[in-house]
Structures are given as C-alpha cells and as structure tokens.
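Technical appendix A lists one of the benchmark inputs used to test multi-chain prediction within the project. The record comprises two sequence entries:
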Amino acid sequence: MIKRHSVIVVGSGLAGMRAAVAARESGADVGVISICMPVRSHSVAAQGGINAPLGNNPESKDDSVDRHAFDTVKGSDYLADQPAVIKLISLAKETIYELEHWGCPFSRSEDGRIGQRPFGGAGYPRTCFAADRTGHSVLHVAWERSVRLGVPVYEDRLVVKLTVKNKKVQGIIVLNFITGELEMWECDAVIFAIGGAGQIYGATSNALNCTGFGIAVSAWAGISMKDMEFIQFHPTCLYGNNVLISEAARGEGGYLRNNKGERFMEKYAPEQMELAPRDIVARSIYQEVLEGRGYGPKENGYVHLDLTHLPESQILERLPQIRELALRFSGQDMVKDPIPVQPGYHYTMGGIHVNENCASEEVEGFYACGEGTCVSVHGANRLGGNSLLECAVFGKVAGVEAAKYAKEATPSPDAKFTLFEALHEQEQEIDFWYSGEGKSDPFKIMEEMRNTMKFNVFVYREEESLKIALDKIRELKQQFNDGVYLKSKVRQYNRELEWVFALKGMLDESEAICMGALARKECRGGHWRLDHLKRDDANFLKHSLVSFADGEPKLSYQDVIITKWQPQERKY
Amino acid sequence: MSSTKETKILTFKIKRFNPVVDDKPYWDTYELECDDGTTVLIAIQELIAKQDGSIAMRYNCRAGVCGSCAVLVNNKYALACETLVLQLNKNVIKLEPLPSYPVIKDLVVDMSQFYEKLLAIEPYLKRDHSKDPETEILQSPEDFHIIEEATKCILCGACHSSCVSVWTDTNYLGPGALLKAFRFTNDTRDEDRRERLKRVTSEDGVYRCHTAFNCVEACPKELNPTEAIQTLKRQSAKQTLKFWSRS
C-alpha cells in the first residue's frame, strides 16, 4: 500500500518541525517522518542560544541586521553566500518573537525582555537563551505548535531512498523499525531536515542518530553534497565522551587555561580572547596540546575550562545543565574546579545543496533545511547561536516554499510504479544483508572509517594524510559493496540494520569530505591545511560540490555570491 | 577522572521480548569489559556492535536531554546514557523496559498512552495572538522562574510509568501530563488558565494523585511532578471557591 501526503517532511528536529508548521499554515497536507518522536531529535541538545539582533542587552543597543550579518559573513571566512545570510538575519527578529509568542520559555532580563548573552565572533551580546537548554526549549515549542495544528508525525521510521524520475520527486521508501518492513510514501514535495553527521567521526558532541544519512540519500537521488570538507570542531567538548559544554560557559565569562595556568587565547586572538570564533579557539587548543602545554596524551589531549572565578549563583542560574553533565561524566564541579575540554566534531557546515529558498536546482520538488543542508549561510565556519536560528528561519522558508510548489504540482502518472520499483530494489539489498552471504562485519568497517577520519581529517590537515584517508575510505566502501552481514536475523526493531544503512551513507559522506579537503589547497575557517597556510581567494572563493548522480563521485565548484562585503583578512 | 582507566568485566542481564515471535519475556546474559566512562547506553551499543545485533533500545542524545533511553537499571528508573555502570557498584547490571507500557521489543516500549494524556492537556500556549505585541510578550524573571522547573521536563515517560494511580486507572492524566499542564497554567502569557484548571480537575485529573511520590523518585531530571499536581489542586480549589481568592 502506498501512503501519501502532499508535503512530506523528513526529520523532526527544529528545522523539520518548523517546516511542517509552516507548510501546514500555508494550507498544505503535510506529514512528518522521523526516526524518533520530535522532542528526541538532536536540536534538543543545543545549549547556549539562538542569535538575533534584538538589542535587549544594555550593551547591544546599537546592534543591527547589518552588524549581525557582517559578523556571520566574517565568521564564515567569506565563504557564505551573502544574500542568503542577509535573508537569514533579516528574518531573525520576527522568528524569535514568533517562537516566544508560541510559548518558548526564554530566560528574561530584569525588564521582562528575552535575555541575551555574548557569544563567540559576535560584535554585540545577541544570543537569546533559555538557561543552557535553549535547543530543548525551542524544539519543544515547535513540537507544541505542530500539535496545536494537528500535524501527523510518523515515528520509528528511517527514510532509506528518495525516488526521482525525470528529475522530479516522486516519493520515498521508508524503513519502519517496528515492523521491520519497507513502506512507500508518495508526495508532491519532500523536505529533508535530517541533521548533522558527527557520527562519521564517533568523537562528537552529536547524537547517535546524527549520521547525516539523509545527505547521502539525497545524493544517491542526484542532489549534490556541498562544502562537505567544512566541519566545525567545537572547542569545548568534554574530555572523554565529547558531550558538549556550551560556548555559553565562555559567554558567561569562562577562561581557557593550559597546563601552566595561562589564558593562552591571548596569543591567538588578543581582542576577543575566549570568545573568538570556534574554528580559531579549537585550533588554539589543539596547538597548545601539540606543543605540550595541554593535559593527557598529545593525540587525545585536553585543556582546562575555568569558571571558578564566576559567582556560584551565576553558574547555577545560567549553566545548570552543563555543570551537571561535567560533574557526572568527569567528576569535576565547575563551581570549584576547572573542567577538561577538547575539540570534537560538532557541526556540519556543508550538506545537501540547495538555494536560498531551500530548493534544489537539481531535482524538482526537493527542499532541505537545517544542519544537514548547505544554503550556505555558515560558509567555512559557523558562529555559535546561528544554527538554531538557521533551523527556525530556513525551516519556515522550506515549509512555505514546498507548500507553494506542491499546490501547483501536477501528480506524476508513474509515481506508483517508480515507488514499487525502488521498494523492490531496496528489499533485495536488505535481504542480502540478512542472508549472511556478505563477508564483512559492518561495525568493523565503521570503526575503521571513524579512526581514518579522526586521525587524518581533523583540525589540522595536509595532503599526505588526506590522501591516506581518501584511499582508505574508498577501500572500506569497496569492502562494504562486496558485502556486509547482519549478525541477527530479527526483522523487528533491528538497530543493527539501521547502522548498516547509516554506514552506507557515512562512507559516501566521508568520501566527499576527503575529496573536498584534498582539493582545497588553502586555509579557510574550519578547513586548515598545514601545507597551504593561507586563504586563497583567487582559487578557492567557491563552494565545492560532490555529485553522486552517476554513481562515482565527481567534484566541481560553484562561485560564492558576494554582494556587500568584500573578503578581508580575518582577525579577532 | 577518566584518565585513570579502571576496567572491569560486568554481567548484563537484559529482559528480552519480541511479541511477534515470543510467547513471553525471557532474560539474556552478556559479559562486557567496562571502564569508568562506560554508561549503560555505551554498553548496549557495544553489545549491539560486537555480540548481539538484535537488542532493541531507543537512544539518541547521549547527554540526558532527549528522553529516549529511560529504562529500569537494577530496578530503578534511569536514563541509560547518564548511568555510569561502574558507579552502580554491582557485578550484574539488570536492564528492563519501563513498566506499565506495552513492550514493542526488548527495551523499546509503546508510549502512546503517555503521549495521548500529554495531548489531552493541550500542551501549547493559548492566547489571542491577534493582540500579540510586535516584540516579545514581557515576562518578569520571577514569573519565568515559576514555570522554569517544569519546562525542564524531557518527556521521557518514566514518571507516567512509575505512577500507582496510572496503574489502577488508565484514564488518569498522570504526573507527566499534569506537570506540563502546570507549566502552561502558570505561564503568565497563557490566557486559558480558567479552562485549564477545569480540565485538570476532571475525574481523571489531579485528584487521582494520592501523593505516593513515585514520580519524584522516578524522574531522572529530579523534577517534582507531585508538587506541581498539589499546586494545581490548590489553584483550582481557589478558582472554584471564589471567596478564598477575595480574602
């Protein structure tokens, strides 16, 4: 049986739920398909805040759309498309007020306005927050709004295939975890809001569902991956399990110290110190560790995040969650002791290639928004507090645009046939994995993939190690394609099967990351080449695109759109 | 601190049940080397990867905030991702699904009865949006603090599972939904307070709570649904008995 919604949203994080709400409010028949119940999505784990130039803080009276947009462009190391950034920031204020009117429980300033705190790379305190659970607060409110509008959510489902014919979306093939069976869903338009890809590295602040699988699924259907080499390594992931310790810890006044007790950011960003953008802080920490001024082994070292000089009441009021996380996982109470932090995979700047209307120009009826998407507004480095904003703003844009498209779309006469064909093909692949005829253990491949990426495509990169990584990833892909097996034969709620799908996607995503990183012979934002230590605007002021449309990945480039701010040297 | 790598081989006893093929639940036992960073969730992940791919459990954030992985660990409600196994000081770690929900498979339960109750309290701000200001609706820090605790709820469903009143009356809204009701009833921006209080004092509402405090004990976020429920009782009594509010 084929199920149908005019607009299907894939993913139930902030971007997905905001898209679903917008599509519904535009009158579309919309349904959400997700691995999990909406409030379980990873937006829930965002901590520090969401940016908008509201000017609520006494120090941010002069803030403006222009200032915020410029900070974002400079933070992106000029790789962001400027019209898209201006669109994002122009819609920021109304987006925050909308969330607030829907009931978002923001922390408040004394005059009853939404509280705003300083964040990295920003000229003014413009990060709106709900203590250190801002993502939790905004995701819950987006879900609540969808409940109010009666948007159906179909949980425990993984979208494994996007069916496209004549460059037009027909529908999707979905694995239902509970039954273990594949489902066919037909739609006029689909919105992928599928999240980031930190699980490629394993050492990440990302949730276990963040495999970026949807990036690969759309790539297999002919939609390019964009700027995949740009990965944000968050400077302060907790040493050990890499759970996120929000930038808000530094926004509230926290210091970073090396093993000599020095505030080493003095050397790297004398003006902004700990509140320099994340790429710079992450590199600085990494450098301190490499030069022996960190703690622990050099290959997995850490520095101290010190908040002990802050009043206990401030920590308890504004950073309660991260204090508890650190206490639980590292045993240190940040009220009294510094806590151990290290850079870890945090954010996927690249992703599914769409334009500033969240629409694909390669496949009609396809839209995407959120972290797994590259519009691009973050370019080579995202500023803290801009990701929730992107999810909310472009979620809405995607919902409105997809609804508009769906209204005028003519149904494809052979959509059902295409879906049946795709279902059959997918069933065969799954049956093969279950058959046990494959020779390779998928979890061994995954472990090798993670180690390859972690050790060769990290904060610092160079030609030799990138080549090793690309070769290794291709070898692992070959192994996967030669056949992997599932240990268990149970069809119902088989999480092993889900990881095999994710791995298939992550291998292609890894390949695109390596290809982009190897070819980009410059330093820009999160991409730092030790063998090409300068930004090279003449050759690389452009987005990289990796297309899997013909099976084998092909790398090409697209110019960055610069309308207002000419690239300058980036100093903080 | 995790630099001192103490390791230990622990036994995991997992309650297994696949209603599609099994007549009744049974236990499987696994051994796994754990260190001081190993959480119940990490252990399950390792077991799925290396020993038995058929173990079913929901998970996601690894940081105690998405509410996916609430289970019983050695008979106690816990989030698997937050529970460090060596700190339990036991050689055997027993894992069971949340009681009182139908089992989908192993540690995965069908939480629809909890979600239905949540929807019944209308979990969204209600106000006449045509009169909304162009900027934010003002709310004092003090008024925010009234609802702040309740907004920390991660909807993991542990409280609903633990509630004796839910066990005996499946129509009872339960502590999780009522905590959410408290959060909206006491939000200064909400204009539906009167109706909300009426709704929670229906026969399936707050008076079904017999203050057993199971929910307080079960809550992994250390919230206090019982207290929220008693406040709702007081507030609704006050609304009904108008002379109270006059004094």
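Chain A touches chain B through 68 residues (CB under 8 Å). The radius of gyration of chain A is 22 Å. Comparable benchmark entries are summarised in Table A2.
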